[in-house]
Amino acid sequence: MFSKGKLVIFSAPSGSGKSTLVNHLLKEYPKLQFSISATSRAPRGEEKHGEHYYFLSPEEFRTRIEAAEFLEWEEVYEGTYYGTLRSEVSRIWDAGGHVAFDIDVVGGLNLKKHFGKRALAVYVKVASMEILEQRLRGRGTDSEEKIAQRLAKAEEESLREPEFDTVILNDDLDRACTEVSEVVGAFLNQ
Ligand SMILES: Nc1nc2c(ncn2[C@@H]2O[C@H](COP(=O)(O)OP(=O)(O)O)[C@@H](O)[C@H]2O)c(=O)[nH]1
Ligand SMILES: Nc1ncnc2c1ncn2[C@@H]1O[C@H](COP(=O)(O)OP(=O)(O)O)[C@@H](O)[C@H]1O
């Protein structure tokens, strides 16, 4: 286990555009496959178990923590767990792929520490908190309370930007997609 493949970690405050950029990359690099996180939050809209997340009850999540099934996990928002299952990385590597993660800043830096040079840690940045707020509202998936929670967390997360290998400014989407493809392509080919 864990003897092959690379890892590309995308972290940023919620609403910065991680999912948008990761989805673009997954189409461009077929060997790059998405690590499906586990969460104890409820599915939103069209989200499906085993595709967007593994949706677990808080009890099941805690049982799996006890069983050491997670590479990293966190209570990202009060009462809501998120984590990366060890089995996700082995599933993708065993199939000959590279792993792409869309996770929060603390989780991303923990994975980078764990995997070292085998991993590229990318921080996705927006030009201002106002733009972040506009994107969170524009996405139309979160209540006012959830938006406030995410903005409060964003302030803290942005302080850790210097710890990442690469920073991508997601202002113009086409330009950010091109930049991210170049950076990730170079890493996967090296
Ligand atoms: N540590 C950690 N954070 C995660 C994981 N999966 C998702 N997250 C983060 O949890 C936060 C909430 O995710 P989600 O509710 O899907 O919301 P969104 O980022 O607003 O789309 C985001 O910052 C995600 O990046 C994981 O496996 N581990
Ligand atoms: N460069 C961009 N310009 C304008 N809107 C964007 C851009 N990138 C992403 N968005 C939009 O912003 C919202 C948040 O993006 P998303 O990828 O869900 O963020 P994250 O995964 O980081 O929470 C979505 O509605 C998305 O379509």
UniProtKB/TrEMBL annotation:
GO molecular function terms noted in the UniProt entry: ATP binding; GMP kinase activity
Source organism, top-level taxon: Bacteria
Localization: Cytoplasm
PROSITE patterns: GUANYLATE_KINASE_1, GUANYLATE_KINASE_2
Main subcellular location: cytoplasm
Binding site for ATP: 12-19
Domain Guanylate kinase-like: 5-185
Keywords assigned by UniProt, alphabetized: ATP-binding, Cytoplasm, Kinase, Nucleotide-binding, Transferase
SMART domains: GuKc (SM00072)
Record SUPFAM superfamilies: P-loop containing nucleoside triphosphate hydrolases (SSF52540)
UniProt GO cellular component terms: cytosol
Record-stated family: Belongs to the guanylate kinase family.
Family annotation (NCBIfam families): guanyl_kin
Function: Essential for recycling GMP and indirectly, cGMP.
Stored HAMAP family: Guanylate_kinase
Name this protein carries in UniProt: Guanylate kinase
Lineage: Bacteria, Pseudomonadati, Bacteroidota, Flavobacteriia, Flavobacteriales
Gene (name only): gmk
